[in-house]
């Protein structure tokens, strides 16, 4: 399909503007625009629809809810509008898989039907109770607009797919007593303490202070609010989609959410309603006080560590007992409303599920795409020991790169020409905007140009840049989509994060990028820094998308090894 007409793009942009909020991001603002629920958006380009990222066949999708593994089947529940490509009419859609790559859709598991959720069935989590019995706790909105915590259970445990769920009439199990009833949502996976009590935390706020209220129960039915929250932090605002889980102090094996043991570390993550970004800290769980205590190795606020420094929100982890790993899901929250052959719009994708573990430095987590993704690799391109001189580039040929998986290792033999680092550059996203891919540096920018047109009128740069600070080198990783499309965009931000690596010692750095038509997910230094972007090229689509390696720094760089694969389309929710 050719370049969309101006009228088509105008209609598309109008929809985006209506859902553009703080920081220019598009988010589920919890406001239903009834006049837009049946909106038909003109055709943009079907080639922009993702090929291997999780996506419903059509319509709006946001938060991943309660992913879980049960009796050999992975379940993904997610917030979904069955009636349109904008937020509203939210139900818990339900898909199943045996590998988290190929997905089969089922009927919604939970939808508004009772007084305690008649105005909405919002996010929540799944927990496996004793006797191998799954339970879901979710936020329901009652007729008075109050946010209540409810439970649901499978109707028939003998059904291998758990198609139907029941909501007991004794709901709600947690009522917003003593808390802000309009800011009380997204219960976590529950964990069992040594005293035999279940614990769950619910996101909230008290004035400008983000709160994770803690509740305890012996039977998963009667819950009591703890005197103190599990954790809180000033000036962070409403905490959405909190997550709390243990991680092993060494190695990549995951732990059950209820795991206890000497030396365990814990990760606490929240999604910030104020900024529409997430942050997390690493710390310990004080069992005696039932409180999470950060290690203070990173800020406990919006400037802290992120699972993903790009378009990534409302993430949720779960423990996969089949492979002893913790899996992270996240929603890429920029609306990408388009049309498919059914003339129904589609919006939102889930990032590729990632394995998550604690870095050896114990200051941050590391993430990597699940190994099952590699089953989609087909034709390969391979390059090794290729010098990329200053202000030079070369094309990776031999494969189609609109749907691709690229792994590359760069050798950085000399850092003598690294630019000086200004101590005021504390915000990596702003720094990437200041020193984007077009700004020549000393060591870098070097990396990949993905979803690029043949003459590079369109291109999305994924790159590193190295600076020299007083006592160390600082490595910046960026996504620069400023030139990703010839059409003026409403939302084309640069995204960036610093990479915790001693490049003066390693003399090399790795990059993996997953390219999927309108999505770019990148993993720097083996998954220490991750960035997800949504881009919308008009020329660099399908077979007309190209992949380049570039170096816009003064220092020469060598590609030690580059492997790139075409990625085939899996079974995706019947589409």
Structure description:
With 575 residues, the protein is mainly beta. Helix content is 4%, strand content 43%. The chain contains 3 helices and 38 strands. The strands form 7 sheets. Strands 27, 29, 30, 31, 32, 33 and 37 form a 7-stranded mixed β-sheet that branches. The chain has a 6-stranded mixed β-sheet with strand order 4-3-2-1-22-21, with no helix packed on it. Strands 9, 10, 11, 12, 13 and 14 form a 6-stranded antiparallel β-sheet that branches. A hairpin with a 2-residue loop joins strand 1 and strand 2 (73-80).
Low-confidence stretches: 1-29, 335-344
Rg from C-alpha positions?
23 Å
The CA-CA distance between the termini, in Å, is 19 Å
What overall geometry do the principal axes of the alpha carbons give?
Answer: globular
- How much beta, percentage-wise? 35-45%
Q: Helical content, roughly?
A: under 10%
Average pLDDT score: 91
Structural class: mainly beta
Main beta sheet strand tally, sense and closure: 7 strands, mixed
Number of alpha- plus pi-helical segments: 3
Total strands: 38
Oligomeric state of the chains in view:
single chain
List keywords for this structure.
3 helices; 4% helix; 575 residues; mainly beta; disordered N terminus; seven-stranded mixed sheet; six-stranded mixed sheet
Topology, pairings included?
Layout: H1 6-18, E1 59-70, E2 73-80, E3 91-97, E4 104-110, E5 121-129, E6 133-141, E7 147-154, E8 165-166, E9 184-185, E10 191-192, E11 198-206, E12 209-217, E13 224-225, E14 231-233, E15 239-247, E16 265-272, E17 278-286, E18 291-294, E19 313-320, E20 325-332, E21 338-339, E22 345-347, E23 349-350, E24 354-358, E25 365-369, E26 377-388, E27 392-395, E28 403-411, E29 419-420, H2 428-434, E30 443-452, E31 460-468, E32 473-480, E33 495-499, H3 503-506, E34 508-516, E35 519-524, E36 529-534, E37 546-551, E38 557-567
Parallel strand pairs: 1-22, 29-31
Antiparallel strand pairs: 1-2, 2-3, 3-4, 5-6, 6-7, 7-8, 9-11, 10-11, 11-12, 12-13, 12-14, 15-16, 16-17, 17-18, 19-20, 20-23, 20-24, 21-22, 24-25, 26-38, 27-37, 28-34, 28-38, 30-31, 30-37, 31-32, 32-33, 34-35, 35-36
